[in-house]
Design goal:
The protein is α/β, with parallel strands linked by helices and 255 residues long. It has 8 helices and 7 strands, in the order βαβαβαβαβαβαααβ. Strands 3-2-1-4-5-6-7 form a 7-stranded parallel beta sheet, sandwiched between helices. The longest helix has 29 residues. The protein is globular, with a radius of gyration of 17 Å.
């Protein structure tokens, strides 16, 4: 079985980093991207130490040219693209809808929505020619429900959910599967910013059905499943990984 070629955006922290490390342990060929050269080169070195062939490519997913170069570099290095994780995202600036501005809208939607669309555009360009490929977008439980004070983030993640379903229908005829993972509360820097302090985090954990937030490694496991041949008959699906929150647990900030 050929070694898979995996592309990950937003790979320098949190879920993206955990997923890159998990693929490296499996011996995948990896192209990782983000906006910070030093952290990117350090990550590429760590992936290499785990036995992977890995390259960091600086890219801002809001830039069509950057994303085009990122995908092309992956193909130039490894000859193909088998799995893509579109993970780059931001929570933007939380606040009531009355405080939405052009700047706050663009800051959130340009990364979460436009960035996902541009990644799909160029990943499809390569995968259609191959006749195969698996793409995983990162949505959120907030892409499936509402929450006051997070209108922009909620709207952007609902968009990612819808884009995933539409792209899956376009890709099916070309052997491309497109799915999304919807994490719930996950111990990342974004989660820390949402909750604010240890007391608030403990309060969140106490009311979740499994009494704890998830870990980036647990989300990475779900991403690897969707990206693999084990999910060969799954496309257009949003896999919720939330410790039971969407089953009817309390609605609390920070998912």
């Amino acid at each position: 079985m050929p070694v898979p070629v995996v592309l990950i955006t937003g790979a320098l922290t949190g879920i993206g980093r955990s997923t890159a490390l998990a693929y490296a342990r499996q011996g995948a060929n990896l192209v990782v991207s983000g906006r910070h050269d030093d952290a990117g080169e350090q990550l590429a070195g760590e992936l290499g130490d785990l036995g992977a062939q890995a390259e960091f490519v600086r890219a801002d997913v809001r830039s069509d040219g950057d994303v085009e170069n990122l995908v092309d570099r992956a193909v130039e290095r490894f000859g193909r693209l088998d799995v893509a994780l579109n993970n780059a995202g931001t929570e933007g600036t939380p606040g009531p809808v009355t405080e939405v501005t052009d700047e706050s809208y663009q800051a959130t939607f340009d990364t979460n929505v436009k960035g996902t669309l541009l990644c799909l555009k160029h990943e499809f360009r390569v995968m259609r020619e191959q006749g195969s490929g698996s793409i995983v977008n990162v949505s959120s439980t907030f892409g499936l429900m509402g929450y006051p004070g997070a209108t922009l983030y909620v709207g952007s993640k609902h968009a990612v959910t819808g884009i995933t379903k539409a792209a899956a229908l376009e890709g099916a005829a070309h052997g491309i599967r497109v799915n999304a993972v919807a994490p719930g509360y996950t111990r990342t820097a974004m989660y820390d910013r949402f909750t604010g302090d240890d007391t608030a985090r403990d309060a969140v954990d106490s009311v979740l059905p499994l009494h704890r937030a998830g870990t980036p490694d647990e989300i990475a496991e779900a991403i690897q499943y969707l990206g693999s041949d084990k999910a060969s008959y799954i496309t257009g699906h949003v896999l919720v990984v939330d410790g039971g929150l969407m089953a009817g647990g309390p609605v609390i900030a920070g998912s």
